[in-house]
Amino acid sequence: MRRSLFRIPNQFYGVVQAANSSSYIRSFTLSPISTPFSTSGPAAVSLARPIPTHTRAFTTTLPCSRNNKKAQKEEPKRSVEVASTRSEAAANDPFDFTNLDAGIAHAIEKLKDELSKLKPGGRFNPDLLEGLRVQLEKGSKDTVKLGDLAQVVPRSGRSIAVLIGEAEHTKPITTAILSSPHSLNPGPSPTNPLELHIPIPPPTADSRAQTLAAASKAGEVASYGVRQARGAQQKLLRSMELARTVLPDDLVKAKAKMEKVVETGYGDVKKMVEGSRRALERG
User: Fold this and answer.
1) Dist. CA 224–CA 205, nearest whole Å
2) How far apart are CA 30 and CA 17, in angstroms?
3) Does pTM top 0.70 for this prediction?
4) 189 to each of 156, 207, 222, how far by Cα in Å?
5) 29 phi and psi, to 5 degrees?
6) Nearest CA among 210, 222, 209 for reference residue 271
7) CA angle at 137 for the pair 136 and 141, rounded to the nearest 5°
8) In which residue ranges of the chain is pLDDT below 50?
């Protein structure tokens, strides 16, 4: 067994153990050097530096791809393009009654709200006071809901109290109540200047007739809303016909289906009004 030392061109050296004359390498160790040294003798081996035993932890971070950034920037544009494509497809679909259904549903919902304010037997509903419009300044067209300026509180018996927030609103609120079609006569409270007392008149034949008329009027408003929704849908179908974006047979079928939807809306309005009138008459 003999020991030989050799030098590597990039300033690394190592110790090679070889057996006999063969070049079979048993072990090989590299370590950097900074100065030249002798390649012979026992002292050369002592110049070998020990290999560090400590380890260093390495972390890796995935690089951000430019393609990913580009895709993130283009994603909103693609969403807008998809939405516009869907809207165009809906605009060219004669059987898309989304707007028609929404218009009819809005008219019926408003009718339910108006009918719920009517009391059987012509009795007065205190909630109607909150919806009165109050003109705060003379000559101004701007009005404010009474419910935003005061609080309406039903009292025991047949009276209502109106609690006003500010003294300057007392006169405009009183004027709005007197000019309403509910035949009310508000008066100031003897103990609180910001409170109005309103006696509720007993129901009469006239009040019952007014209540029934209000129900019929609400039904007319709802029917007008259904008619407006039908007109918008009819206009859309007409534009498709002029642009020739759909087949004539599809237009005929779409119009027939539209009329069925509108007829159902009119029927719902009529049923609600008739049911409300029967309930008001029984009361």
Assistant:
1) 29
2) 14
3) no
4) 16, 27, 40
5) -130, 135
6) 222
7) 90
8) 1-48, 80, 82-86
Q: Which residues pair with 152 in a beta bridge?
A: 162
> Can you read off the two tokens belonging to residue 161?
């109290």
**Tokens, residue 235:** 């206009």
Q: Which one-letter DSSP state was computed for residue 13? A: E
Element (H, E) at 72: helix 66-91
Angle, helices 248-282 vs 98-116, to 10°: value is 10
Contact assessment for residue 283 and residue 119, using Cβ atoms and an 8 Å cutoff: yes
CA distance 86 to 109: 28
In whole angstroms, what is the distance from residue 121 CA to residue 104 CA?
30
Residue range 27-50, pLDDT digits in tens: 444 444 444 444 444 444 444 455
**At 267, which amino acid appears?**
G
Q: Which residues of 63-73 are buried (b: 16+ CB within 10 A; e: fewer)?
A: eeeeeeeeeee
Q: Is 152 helix (H, G, I), strand (E, B) or coil?
A: strand
- Assign residue 121 a region (left: φ > 0; alpha: ψ between -120 and 50; beta: otherwise): left
